């Protein structure tokens, strides 16, 4: 985040909406009118329970899904309207994705070197075969694997190693922005920390920007600069990660925070979990993301803004 | 645990898998006891042998697995010697299991009510109507709203958390003496995980069932277990009460697990990570299996496997650091913090006992 003047916005999502099965009886609005921006070089954490639309948001940004409405500005250009193949290709050179399941996201019939070099070939980033192999080797070393691993198949690797291969693949075409969709939730605790640390190291080395999608607030807080909390397709709270984690004020954020398991039996005896009961939709005042402190926003009615401001003050005391 | 009647005693259990590349020693001399009404958590990472141990108790090992040594005593009877037919009588009725994935452990073509009632009708001579009444009771116990109506629903009409509740109802319907929960919350969200843990805790309080709780997350077990066994590469490396293992841990692997939890409020830029990867159980090193990843390893670790050293009557750990004459080491900061809390609490408990 270091830099002179105002940090530059790398991504700006406004009023993004994604509806599946539009017009049918099973219509679902997975992402419902959300807006946020991500600054260059930061990690933006998106948290929420399964089905809240956080992964759909990520996949819509990278255009694996077409947005129903709204705009996605990547470095000032609206990528949601891209129709030409080469323009899309150019966009995807700068934005890559790391997927949740390291078992399902690697083609079992491809060797590791082919998995990693596929993107390099698509974007013609290597002139000769030697250069290509050199790049693959370099990438493997970067993510902590051996050059000898290049000729192996995915099934020969453990979950953590596979996730490293997925990271190497994402880095192969030197993107600026990486969407990490629950990259560690399928991994063991002892391996999770390794992968998170690797992602942080790479961010520093290569000046990457991350959109980090996860359901574990404790972990997201550790690595993110800012956090957005999603619930049923809406962004309900947005702010600096320390502030959200320590003084989250939206009732849903509070329920998420209180559900984090703590390795202390005494804590469990006194601790009460907060259960979130969503407010019923009443016609009248419009709900929107409203600012309650510097960089801190809550989804609420205009009339509730003061209430949340006071709540935040109270918590900070 | 001498004061509690033991329902399950596992002694020197060894399980091997024969695979194309050779013999995988998945479980290597595991011994523990499960007391009546007690909850023992087995914590370890994938491939550590925790699920294999659980499955061996249920008699559900795959065909290429073999119990090469040891015994599993359930109320004095050795389950290892039982035939499949005898095991069928025990499985589901006396010992039941909650599986990890609620998406695949239910039959998609059967209504929920019938699935819950099925095992009751299988084990007890009871009419369909009676079985369904009992099923309804259980579904209400596990917190399925509008249970009567929803008994006629199919699994796909339930959310992940609710399916796990149904799976728990199935496990409980015959009032088993032991319930083995194999990572029951791993596939769930944090909030749903908390709900399921609360449910299990409530059941513990209501019924005198013993629980064997298998997980890879130390944070999850703190509130639910009485004792914790940490397992690594097929061996128990540390076992003790929840307080002992979480607040006075002795084994460097337990130290690593506790230090790598992201929740701590430290100012360190990076989360502590245990270096390396779990060992290949096909070719284990001669000494301590954790040796290559252990910052505190000594020369002897490379040559000789450490036995379980006793720390307290209820607490044991397999590390040479506990051997007489071993050098003093400084554990990670998080462990020191926890040890201090442990001392404080012990002193408080002592003070309140004597006053």
Which descriptors apply to this entry?
heterodimer; A: 317 residues; alpha/beta; Rossmann fold; 8-stranded mixed beta sheet; 4-stranded antiparallel beta sheet; 11 helices; 12 strands; globular; B: 355 residues
Structure explained in plain terms:
The complex is a heterodimer of chains A (317) and B (355). The two termini of chain A are 28 Å apart. Chain A has 317 residues and is α/β, with parallel strands linked by helices. An eight-stranded mixed β-sheet of chain A has the order 6-7-8-3-9-10-12-11, sandwiched between helices. A four-stranded antiparallel β-sheet of chain A has the order 2-1-4-5, with helices on one face. The longest helix of chain A has 18 residues, at 189-206. In chain A, helix 7 (217-223) packs antiparallel against helix 8 (241-247). Chain A has one domain (9-279, 296-316): P-loop containing nucleotide triphosphate hydrolases (Rossmann fold), CATH 3.40.50. Chain A has helices at 54-61, 85-94, 112-122, 129-142, 159-171, 189-206, 217-223, 241-247, 251-258, 265-270, 305-316; strands at residues 9-20, 28-39, 43-47, 69-74, 77-78, 95-98, 177-181, 209-214, 226-231, 234-240, 287-293, 296-301. Chain A is globular and about 65 Å long. In chain A, helix 6 links the parallel strand 7 and strand 8 (209-214). Chain B is of the alpha/beta class and 355 residues long. Among the domains of chain B are: 102-175, no CATH class; 235-354, 3-Layer(aba) Sandwich (Rossmann fold), CATH 3.40.50.300. Helices cover 34% and strands 23% of the residues of chain B. Chain B has twelve helices and twelve strands. Chain B has helices at residues 50-58, 84-90, 112-123, 128-141, 147-150, 160-172, 190-206, 218-221, 242-247, 252-259, 299-303, 333-354, and strands at residues 6-19, 22-35, 39-43, 65-74, 77-78, 95-98, 178-182, 210-215, 227-232, 235-241, 309-312, 315-317. An eight-stranded mixed β-sheet of chain B has the order 6-7-8-3-9-10-12-11, with helices on both faces. In chain B, strands 2-1-4-5 form a four-stranded antiparallel β-sheet, covered by helices on one side. The mean pLDDT of chain B is 89. Chain A binds chain B through residues 49-50, 158-161, 188-194, 196-197, 200, 215-219, 221-222, 255-256, 258-268, 273, 276, and chain B through 45-46, 160, 189-194, 197-198, 216-223, 242-243, 246, 256-258, 260-263, 269-275, 277-278, 345.
């Amino acid at each position: 985040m270091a830099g002179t003047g105002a940090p530059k916005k790398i991504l700006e999502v406004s009023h993004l909406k994604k509806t599946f099965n539009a017009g049918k009886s099973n219509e679902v609005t997975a992402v419902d009118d959300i807006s946020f921006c991500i600054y260059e070089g930061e990690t933006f954490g998106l948290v929420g329970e399964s089905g809240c639309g956080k992964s759909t948001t990520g996949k819509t940004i990278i255009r694996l899904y077409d947005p129903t409405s709204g705009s996605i500005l990547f470095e000032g250009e609206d990528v949601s309207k891209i129709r030409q193949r080469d323009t899309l290709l150019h966009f995807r050179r700068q934005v890559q994705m790391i997927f949740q399941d390291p078992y399902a996201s690697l083609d079992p019939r491809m060797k590791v070197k082919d998995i990693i070099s596929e993107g390099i070939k698509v974007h013609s980033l290597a002139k000769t075969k030697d250069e290509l192999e050199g790049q693959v080797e370099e990438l493997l070393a970067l993510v902590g694997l051996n050059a000898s691993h290049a000729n192996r198949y995915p099934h020969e690797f453990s979950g953590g190693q596979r996730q490293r291969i997925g990271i190497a693949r994402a880095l192969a075409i030197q993107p600026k922005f990486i969407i990490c969709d629950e990259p560690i939730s399928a991994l063991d605790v002892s391996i999770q920390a390794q992968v998170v640390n690797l992602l942080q190291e790479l961010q520093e080395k290569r000046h990457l920007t991350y959109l980090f999608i996860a359901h574990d607030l404790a972990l997201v807080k550790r690595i993110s600069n800012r956090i957005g909390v999603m619930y049923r397709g809406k962004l309900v709270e947005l702010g600096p990660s320390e502030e959200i984690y320590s003084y989250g004020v939206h009732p849903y954020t509070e329920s998420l925070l209180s559900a984090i398991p703590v390795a202390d039996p005494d804590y469990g005896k006194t601790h009460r979990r907060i259960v979130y009961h969503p407010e019923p939709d009443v016609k009248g005042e419009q709900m929107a993301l409203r600012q309650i402190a510097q960089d801190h926003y809550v989804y609420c009615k205009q009339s509730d803004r003061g209430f949340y401001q006071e709540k935040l003050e109270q918590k900070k005391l | 645990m001498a004061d509690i009647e033991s329902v399950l005693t596992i002694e020197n259990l060894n399980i091997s898998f024969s695979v194309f590349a050779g013999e995988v020693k998945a479980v290597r001399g595991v011994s523990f006891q499960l007391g009546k009404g007690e909850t023992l958590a087995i914590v370890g990472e994938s491939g550590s042998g925790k699920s294999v141990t659980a499955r061996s108790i249920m008699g559900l090992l795959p065909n290429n697995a073999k119990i090469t040594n040891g015994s599993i005593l359930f109320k004095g009877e050795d389950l290892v010697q039982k035939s499949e037919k005898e095991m069928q009588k025990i499985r589901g009725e006396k010992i039941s299991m909650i599986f990890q994935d609620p998406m695949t452990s239910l039959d998609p073509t059967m209504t929920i009510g019938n699935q819950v009632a099925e095992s009751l009708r299988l084990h007890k001579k009871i009419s369909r109507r009676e079985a369904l009444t009992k099923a309804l009771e259980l579904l209400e116990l596990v917190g399925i709203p509008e249970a009567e109506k929803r008994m006629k629903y199919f699994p796909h009409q339930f959310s992940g958390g609710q399916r796990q509740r149904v799976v728990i109802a199935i496990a409980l319907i015959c009032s088993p003496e032991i319930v083995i929960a194999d990572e029951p919350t791993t596939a769930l969200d944090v909030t749903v995980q908390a709900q399921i843990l609360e449910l299990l805790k409530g059941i513990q309080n209501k019924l005198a069932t013993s629980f064997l709780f298998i997980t890879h997350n130390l944070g999850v077990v703190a509130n639910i277990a009485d004792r914790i066994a940490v397992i690594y590469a097929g061996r128990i490396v540390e076992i003790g009460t929840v307080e002992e293992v979480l607040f006075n841990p002795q084994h460097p692997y337990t130290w690593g697990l506790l230090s790598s939890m992201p929740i701590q409020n430290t100012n360190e830029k990076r989360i502590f990570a245990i270096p390396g990867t779990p060992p290949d159980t096909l070719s284990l090193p001669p000494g301590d299996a954790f040796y290559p990843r252990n910052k505190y390893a000594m020369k002897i670790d490379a040559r000789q496997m450490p036995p379980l050293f006793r720390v307290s009557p209820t607490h044991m750990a397999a590390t040479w650091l506990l051997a007489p004459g071993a050098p003093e080491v400084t554990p990670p900061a998080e462990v020191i913090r926890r040890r201090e809390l442990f001392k404080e609490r012990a002193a408080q408990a002592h003070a309140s006992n004597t006053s």
